[in-house]
Specification:
Strand content: 15-25%
Order of helices and strands: HEEHEHHEEEH
Structural class: alpha/beta
Largest sheet: 6 strands, mixed
């Protein structure tokens, strides 16, 4: 029929498709796929993670050295790390790492402001004094939202027996601070 004079083919239904059109469709599909993938990656990166009501977040700030003696300065971070370590036994508690709290090691650190900056519910602050071969430590937990103290603790131990101080702090944190945060004792691991 195609060779008959005067006849035109009115349909292209059974003709071979254009390769140019095929490559254009493939290219358009690739561009759309890349746009969708980049938008999905952006959304995953910028989405706000839902806050679980059962999760409590806490930061332990370096303790203040009342006497400002350089011989005891290491205790500022060591005591804060011991408290944070004792809090890790509470499974439903998220503790900020000490690297993110070190900048609050000065005496002017406001617990509520630090808590907001760190994105936590509770901030643990305190101070210590090394005097007459004894170390005296006072710690308090501050509810960031209400800016009020929800727990206080005091510890005393010989300066040459910091291990006794560490054990005393761990025991009080597990038995008193964790319940003050609203975490049941059953949710605390024994290690």
């Amino acid at each position: 029929l195609r060779q008959a004079p005067g006849l035109k083919v009115a349909t292209t239904t059974f003709q071979k498709p254009s390769t140019k059109l095929t490559w254009m469709v493939i290219g358009l599909a690739a561009v759309l796929l890349m746009v969708a993938a980049s938008m999905g990656a952006w959304w995953l990166k910028h989405r706000v993670a839902p806050v679980r009501a059962s999760t409590r977040t806490i930061a332990v700030l370096p303790l203040q050295n009342i006497k400002h003696d350089s011989e005891s300065e290491f205790l500022s971070y060591a005591l804060a790390d011991e408290i944070a370590n004792a809090l890790t036994y509470a499974r439903s508690l998220d503790i900020r790492p000490s690297a993110s709290t070190q900048k609050y090691g000065n005496a002017e650190a406001d617990p509520a402001k630090a808590g907001i900056e760190l994105g936590v519910n509770t901030v643990v602050v305190g101070h210590f004094l090394r005097q007459d071969k004894m170390v005296h430590v006072t710690v308090e937990a501050v509810d960031v939202k209400n800016n009020k103290v929800i727990w206080t603790g005091a510890f005393t131990a010989p300066a040459d027996s910091l291990n006794a101080l560490r054990k005393q702090m761990a025991k009080k944190v597990k038995e008193e601070l964790v319940p003050a945060l609203g975490i049941a004792r059953e949710a605390v691991e024994d290690k």
